[in-house]
Design brief:
The complex is a heterodimer of chains A (295) and B (408).
Chain A: H1 2-37, H2 40-50, H3 59-66, H4 83-94, E1 101-106, H5 113-126, E2 130-134, H6 139-142, H7 144-159, E3 169-171, E4 188-192, H8 198-213, H9 224-234, E5 242-246, E6 264-268, H10 276-288
Parallel strand pairs in A: 1-2, 1-5, 2-4, 3-4, 5-6
Helix pairs in contact in A: 1-2, 5-7
Chain B: E1 5-7, E2 15-19, E3 24-30, E4 35-43, E5 50-53, E6 56-59, E7 66-73, H1 85-95, E8 102-106, H2 110-116, H3 121-141, E9 146-153, H4 161-180, H5 182-188, E10 190-195, H6 203-215, E11 222-230, H7 232-248, H8 259-264, E12 276-279, E13 298-301, H9 311-359, H10 366-407
Parallel strand pairs in B: 1-3, 8-9, 8-12, 9-11, 10-11, 12-13
Antiparallel strand pairs in B: 2-7, 3-6, 4-7, 5-6
Helix pairs in contact in B: 1-9, 2-3, 3-4, 4-6, 6-10, 9-10
The chains are: A alpha/beta (295), B alpha/beta (408).
Organism (chain A): Astatotilapia calliptera
EC number (chain A): 2.5.1.87
Subcellular location (chain A): Endoplasmic reticulum membrane
């Protein structure tokens, strides 16, 4: 009797998962259609229709639907003229707040370099000065030259012939690090991998323990600001205010654990064929976040 | 001056009257355990001679106040009761899939809830605690043995003095209540652990916490970890400090420091990493909570306010966990392999250095190198074991010493 019950519940569970996947597919299909219709009535109707079945936790989808990008935003086409950049800048200025450092967390298999390069270029065009790219396999790290090429190409496409004037500082683990005191006026693109996370903290810990071993300091001297300072000495990565996560996996997958204490996380379903409006929508949602900092 | 003001209990829900002539600042308590007090009115002396804040009463030495207070059932840590039929069926369906063994909650939204319902902030926090007790009951029925909650952050000390005092007072009441129902806790096998920089708290609260942790330390059916005076950066720093202490004591070497060892030095070292982290009230950040431990956990952000959390919200979060289970497991395994590889590389480097030193530049054959590596690894592991034993002893003594002071 018990095994029959267990079997029944197991089947019901599988059915539940299938229902959820179907619901998701339906939702994303409708999401695409609504963007193309751009009619408020259709938007409202769809929300009402799907609300009961979308109770199974897709707040991100719902948010995307409700706080969708402005009807005024015209899509950026592949080959846009130099006007693209100034428009991006004005979009950036109209946002309530812009992060200084945005993290692009790719939680999907087989990343698409042109799409990521697009997002990076749009971020910089909107006025974000530090853009980092991360995946938990370290794929971007391994292929960082390819990524750089794609970024350069997309920059040219977006900004036209003037693209080369807008130079970018490209950093990855292998490249030479400038002194942390030098504030670069150029926007920076940084490629991150899991080693920049926990392993960096471990290195600092080893450093401190070795200095205790050599009687250079006592364990009592170790405090939060010391750890923070040492972490930023070797790789001066500012704390990201915003991380945009691409992909269905709901996890940070080892992204910079020390730095993300106050980071806002906004999820987008995928980075493939991502549009400028999607990114802008995410930035607008970030603008609405209010931090109380413990108070 | 800090004598407790006892209310002689009338019938539950009915006001009871008392008076006391001594002046000062006293907390309002009920003599009968399990009963909580809400001050309804104070009369019998000049208004400005009395002030009331956060459940404590203060009055001038010569005042003779009459205090009418209402008693109501106190909220316990343990709620008994079965699930409804529909809840039971849903629970059984979910349990057919992979279930998280450790869930962490950021219980956000108490103050917004209080504003929404036009209650006092303090009442919002109390409702929040009530919801915690209920959530523990649901987790028990869902066979989730371990729960970690973010009760008070070090950043929360920045709040107004009133609110901080109120929260400390609430904590005192709750831990006292916990100690009162220790038999019930034993029956359910609940082990309470408190994680954080406890020396930031008032001493009497530290002692209460120590007693609660000490009395429940051997229970092993379910585990409740309360993060109090906690931030993740302080926790990581403390772990590094403990390792440095170990080096200073000569228990371990600087080169023994690794990711695994740091994890063993965190406040949460007795628990596995959380499988699922839930944050309520719609905020989408981690706020310095378990940053190290949740690097490969499923994160679920829900917009419901914590005091309004329901069984269905919990099911929704668990479903999210189940949908992400395979891909997160894959990522975890990848990370673990990478970690093992790094440890091996580190050991090899140390051995190479040692052999270089001993053989005076003469080449060493691979057999000897392999033996040296195995020997080095087992020595390192032994050092680490002894160090962790010493660390555990240090931490246990911290709690037992605090308890000794309390019982004196």
């Amino acid at each position: 009797m018990r095994t029959r019950m267990a079997l029944m519940y197991s089947l019901l569970w599988r059915l539940l998962l299938i229902l959820v996947h179907v619901n998701r597919a339906l939702f994303s299909w409708l999401h695409v259609r609504i963007q193309s219709w751009k009619g408020r009535l259709w938007e409202r109707a769809a929300t009402v229709l799907l609300l009961p079945i979308s109770l199974v936790g897709f707040p991100d989808f719902q948010n995307n639907l409700n706080h969708g990008p402005d009807a005024n935003v015209k899509p950026i086409t592949e080959k846009s003229t130099g006007g693209g950049r100034s428009r991006c800048l004005s979009d950036g200025k109209s946002l309530k707040k812009i992060p200084v450092h945005i993290g692009l967390l790719v939680a999907e298999e087989e990343p698409s370099y042109p799409d990521i390069a697009n997002v990076v270029v749009w971020c910089m065009a909107v006025g974000i000065s530090y853009v980092s790219v991360y995946d938990n396999h370290g794929v971007f790290q391994k292929n960082n030259s390819r990524l750089l090429e794609e970024i350069k190409r997309q920059q040219q496409d977006l900004l036209g012939v003037d693209g080369s004037m807008h130079s970018v500082e490209f950093l990855s683990s292998g490249s030479d690090q400038h002194q942390h005191n030098v504030v670069s006026c150029r926007p920076t693109v940084r490629v991150l991998s899991p080693d920049d996370g926990k392993q960096s903290i471990v290195h600092v810990a080893q450093q401190l323990c070795r200095s205790v071993e050599n009687k250079e300091r006592s364990f009592k001297d170790i405090n939060v600001s010391m750890l923070d300072l040492l972490l930023r000495e070797s790789k001066n990565i500012p704390d990201p205010e915003l991380v945009v996560k691409f992909g269905p996996v709901n996890s940070t997958l080892g992204f910079l654990p020390w730095h993300i204490r106050l980071t806002e996380f906004i999820s987008l379903p995928s980075h493939r064929n991502i549009s400028y409006e999607d990114l802008l929508g995410a930035l607008q949602r970030y603008g609405a976040c209010q931090q109380r900092l413990g108070q | 001056m800090n004598e407790a003001l006892y209310v002689f209990p009338g019938q539950r829900g009915r006001p009871s009257v008392l008076f006391q002539s001594r002046g000062g600042l006293v907390p309002c308590r009920s003599r009968e355990p399990g009963l909580q007090l809400t001050v309804k009115s104070i009369s019998g002396c000049k208004c400005n001679a009395i002030s009331s804040k956060n459940g404590t009463l203060m009055w001038e030495p010569d005042a003779f106040p009459f205090v009418k207070a209402k008693t109501c059932t106190d909220m316990s840590w343990i709620k008994e009761g079965e699930l409804s039929l529909l809840e039971k069926i849903s629970a059984n369906i979910l349990k057919a899939g992979p279930m998280p063994k450790h869930v962490a909650f950021i219980m956000d939204g108490n103050r917004r809830f209080a504003r929404k319902k036009n209650m006092e902030r303090q009442e919002g926090h109390m409702q929040g605690f009530n919801k915690l007790a209920e959530t523990l009951r649901w987790c028990k029925h869902l066979n989730i043995p371990e729960v970690t909650v973010y009760a008070f952050s070090i950043e929360n000390f920045k709040r107004t003095e009133d609110e901080v005092d109120g929260l400390m007072e609430l904590a005192r009441q709750k831990f006292e209540r916990l100690l009162e129902e220790h038999e019930n806790l034993e029956k359910h096998g609940v082990c309470i652990r408190v994680l954080g920089d406890l020396n930031m708290l008032p001493l009497d609260l530290q002692q209460l916490i120590a007693k609660a942790v000490f009395t429940t330390r051997n229970h092993n059916k379910c585990f409740v970890n309360v993060c109090f005076a906690y931030t993740s950066r302080y926790e990581i720093t403390n772990a590094v400090r403990e390792m440095a202490w170990g080096v200073e004591q000569g228990l371990i070497k600087g080169s023994d420091v690794s990711e695994a060892l740091l994890s063993e030095c965190l406040y949460s070292n007795n628990s596995p990493n959380p499988d699922l982290l839930i944050r309520t009230s719609g905020e989408v950040r981690l706020s310095d909570f378990l940053l190290w431990q949740t690097s490969h956990s499923c994160l679920v952000f829900q917009s419901v306010l914590w005091p309004e959390y329901s069984f269905w919200n919990l099911c929704e979060a668990i479903l999210q966990y189940q949908l992400n289970h395979k891909s997160i497991q894959k990522a975890r395994d990848l990370h673990r392999e990478h970690q093992a590889l790094q440890q091996l590389e580190a050991d090899r480097a140390c051995v190479a250095e040692l052999l270089q030193h001993h053989s005076n530049g003469k080449p060493v054959d691979s057999q000897r190198r392999q033996e040296a590596l195995l020997h080095y690894t087992s020595c390192r592991e032994e050092r680490v074991r002894d160090f962790l034993k010493a660390l555990k002893h240090k931490r246990d003594s911290f709690f037992s010493d605090l308890c000794k002071v309390l019982s004196l």
